[in-house]
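User: Predict the structure for this protein chain, please.
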Amino acid sequence: MMNDFNSWYTKQPLFTRTYVSVLVLFGIIGKFKPAYLWYIMFDAKKIFSLQIHRLFTHYFFSGTLSFSFILHLLFIIFCIKNCEIMFEGSNYADFYYMILYFFITGDIMSWLFDYGFLSGAFCFALIYVWCKRKPFETVRFYFGFQFKSEYFPWVLIAFDAITDQDVVQDLIGLGIAHSYLLFKDFLPVTQNISLLETPKFFKNFVNKYIVKYTPFARNRFNQQQFQQPQRQFFQGQGIRLG
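Assistant: Here is the predicted structure, written as structure tokens:
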């Protein structure tokens, strides 16, 4: 059984398994040493006191260790994995540049809306980008409910509202992801303005130090398929969630 888990774990994309592993770590810490979470939450005053790690660590806590937390992890894996594998080959640097954009804009939202942790908005932003770029995938939600991925963000918002979850984080994630798609996909085509072009030094860094640890990206990179992410997608395979 442990071998099966190790095989599954190593097959996950690099950022997906790293992010989920840190979530589990902080989930365990929050379960047994909840006072330690204060050291990773977003706090503007502490950040100005040079506790720079708070700009990033508040994205890596999504609840304390429990059965519901494990179920939530499966959803997080779904969100991140589908978005990450969309940035294959030479486009893999664009994925990390998008993550950096999400972190920076999310920090601004945390300051404006006084949020200590923003992992929910971060995951929603990832799923929103995937749904917009692959709108015709079939998603199977809870209770056998099926729909196209283009409706998935709105289904999530409705579901969170019905189950009394934090809809504000969903809306923050939606705004962050929508602004990214506006700057990355829409303005370069309609206005010939490229505000989020991944810098060359950033691409070189990712290709040199990160791609080698990610088999699916390395294989495509070695084939030298240097296309930008597609703007439109056609009918895809069904994806089960829940």
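The chain has eleven helices and three strands.
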